[in-house]
Specification:
alpha/beta; Rossmann fold; binds nicotinamide-adenine-dinucleotide; 7 helices
């Protein structure tokens, strides 16, 4: 028997990158996955890969998380009565210095990386089975100062505080709420990750001398989603190769 047989899991931003890997992993564990993204062609690609690997795709939901009603839109479109696992993964990471951040960029980041996480969790909660799981995605950049990431990391700080408070709020239903804080993960979008300089910089900052892969994050999500993690809640788990621990 697989770990998540019969569970229903929704993963935001699962058209590509880390979210797509999480969706594939949870499907391999037997979950019925609800894929969500802005881009329908990305959703279809992920769905095809999952089906080809023998997984079950319950539904594709295309929606824009910049929309303030994203939580309502998603719940209205659900084609299941109950869900068990929500992974708030979708996020954007534009790089801009403090002086360059304007209202429109700030608003987009608040909408997608923060407001959507808060209200999707709130609106989906009545549809969640007791004993369910909410897993948020933070970032290990909080451990250091990285130029250009002031808005991104400040908002990830909100996500971590929200994770702990929501865990306290809904723990009585046996629903766990945790966050994973990934280090640098090569999702194939940023060619710098594969340059000699990029590899040197990344490995220099990590205690473990191997580069971050999406599977490290999806493995951690699969664990938090499993029965074996039923007594872990309000935790922020660094999955970052020991980022900033190296001398
Ligand atoms: N890749 C990394 O190194 C890294 C490190 C730390 C944390 N993270 C976090 O992991 C999560 C996923 O990152 P990723 O690297 O896979 O990113 P990505 O850009 O590869 O994927 C993000 C997904 O979210 C979707 N998305 C973006 N804006 C949306 C919107 N308005 N509405 C709906 N969907 C939208 C995109 O279409 C995409 O499929 C993010 O929360 C990110 O902050 C990533």
């Amino acid at each position: 028997m697989k770990n998540l047989t019969g569970k229903v899991a929704m993963i935001t931003g699962s058209g590509r990158g880390i979210g797509a890997h999480i969706a594939k992993r949870l499907a391999l564990e037997g979950a019925y996955v609800i894929l969500h993204d802005l881009e329908i062609h990305l959703l279809e690609e992920t769905a095809n890969e999952i089906r080809a690997a023998g997984g079950i795709v319950q539904q594709l939901i295309q929606s824009d998380l910049s929309d303030h009603d994203a939580g309502d839109t998603i719940t209205q479109r659900l084609n299941v009565e109950k869900i068990d696992i929500l992974v708030n993964n979708a996020g954007i990471a534009p790089v801009r210095s403090f002086q360059e951040v304007d209202q429109s960029m700030f608003n987009a980041m608040v909408d997608i990386n923060m407001r959507a996480v808060f209200f999707i969790s709130q609106k989906l909660l009545p549809y969640m089975n007791d004993g369910g799981r909410i897993i948020n995605i933070s970032s290990s950049l909080k451990k250091t100062y990285a130029p250009g990431f002031i808005t991104y990391v400040s908002i990830k700080g909100f996500i971590e505080a929200f994770t702990k408070y929501l865990a306290g709020e809904i723990g009585g239903r046996g629903i766990t709420v945790n966050a994973i804080s990934p280090g640098a993960i090569n999702t194939g979008l940023n060619p710098w990750f594969e340059t000699e300089e990029g590899i040197k910089v990344l490995l220099n900052d990590q205690a473990l001398k191997k580069l971050g892969q999406p599977s490290y994050i999806s493995d951690a999500v699969a664990f938090l989603a499993s029965e074996q993690a039923s007594w872990i809640s309000g935790a922020i788990i660094d999955v970052d190769g020991g980022f900033k621990l190296a001398p």
